[in-house]
């Protein structure tokens, strides 16, 4: 397999592992730049493998994530509680792990970077509303595997909106209603499957 050619999607998958490693302090920003350059210059699996061989996500030290939505204890049919409002203009907003998500989340972070990882989040409603203003900045929303989302954001002024998730609601699966603005910026809504070398090319 080491001599087989790799695809752009596989390069993106490895680059994501590298960025998370940098965010966790496992590699420096200089190392991140070097490895990202090598990632996008790679042509075969043999070129990619050394770039993540010293990281837990590649070495298997971390337990694989489930391929189904995480636990949603206490799900109720009627929205309860106050919305969560996050304001951090021009800064960085990150929520991940087992954080509690109310029926509505608002992120006001123009010119900043936003990352909401909902795979292990505790959802308090079967339908969660997320409003994101990431104009002239960037936002990355990672949904639990199997969740669905309707996405309607203003991407004018050269903004970029990309949704890689199912939009049709499914019985028993969490659903997200995502609105807001990414004017002059970017918003991506996606799933994230566990990284493994065996999954590349599949």
UniProtKB/TrEMBL annotation:
InterPro entries, per this entry?
DUF1707_SHOCT-like (IPR012551)
Highest taxon listed in the record's lineage: Bacteria
Q: DUF1707 domain: from which residue to which, for each copy?
A: 4-56
Q: From what organism does this protein derive? A: Nocardiopsis codii
One Pfam short name: DUF1707
The protein's name in its UniProt record: DUF1707 domain-containing protein
């Amino acid at each position: 397999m080491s001599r087989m050619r790799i695809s752009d999607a596989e390069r993106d998958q490895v680059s994501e592992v590298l960025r998370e490693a940098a965010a966790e302090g496992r590699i420096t920003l200089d190392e991140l730049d070097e490895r990202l350059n090598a990632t996008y210059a790679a042509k075969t699996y043999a070129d990619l493998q050394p770039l993540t061989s010293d990281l837990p996500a590649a070495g298997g030290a971390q337990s694989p994530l489930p391929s189904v939505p995480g636990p949603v204890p206490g799900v109720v049919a009627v929205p309860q509680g106050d919305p969560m409002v996050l304001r951090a203009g021009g800064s960085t907003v990150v929520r991940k792990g087992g954080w509690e998500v109310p029926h509505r989340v608002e992120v006001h972070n123009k010119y900043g970077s936003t990352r909401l990882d909902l795979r292990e989040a505790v959802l308090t409603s079967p339908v969660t509303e997320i409003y994101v203003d990431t104009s002239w900045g960037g936002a990355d929303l990672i949904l639990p595997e199997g969740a669905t989302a309707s996405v309607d954001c203003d991407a004018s002024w050269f903004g970029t909106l990309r949704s890689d998730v199912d939009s049709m609601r499914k019985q028993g699966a969490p659903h997200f209603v995502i609105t807001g603005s990414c004017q002059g910026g970017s918003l991506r809504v996606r799933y994230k499957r566990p990284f493994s070398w065996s999954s590349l090319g599949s």
